[in-house]
Structure prediction request, 73 residues.
Amino acid sequence: MSAAASLRGRLEWVAHAWKAVTQQHHRDLLPLLRPLLPEDGVAVDIGAHAGQFTKLFARLAPAGRVITVEPSP
Prediction:
C-alpha cells in the first residue's frame, strides 16, 4: 500500500468518525420511531454508513438487538 493510499484511508476514517459524532440530526426521529420499535425489538440497518441510525435504534431498543450491515468498505 502506498503512503498516499494509507493517508487517504486515515482521512476517510477521520471523516466518518467526525460525521458520526457531529451529525446527530437523526435524533429528531426518536418520537416518530419510538412507537414502532419496542424496547426488546429487533432492528436491521442496511447501509449503515457511519452508524447514525444504528445508534438511534440501539437507544430505542436497549433490551433488543440491532443488526447492522454496511456493504461498502
About this structure: The radius of gyration is 15 Å.
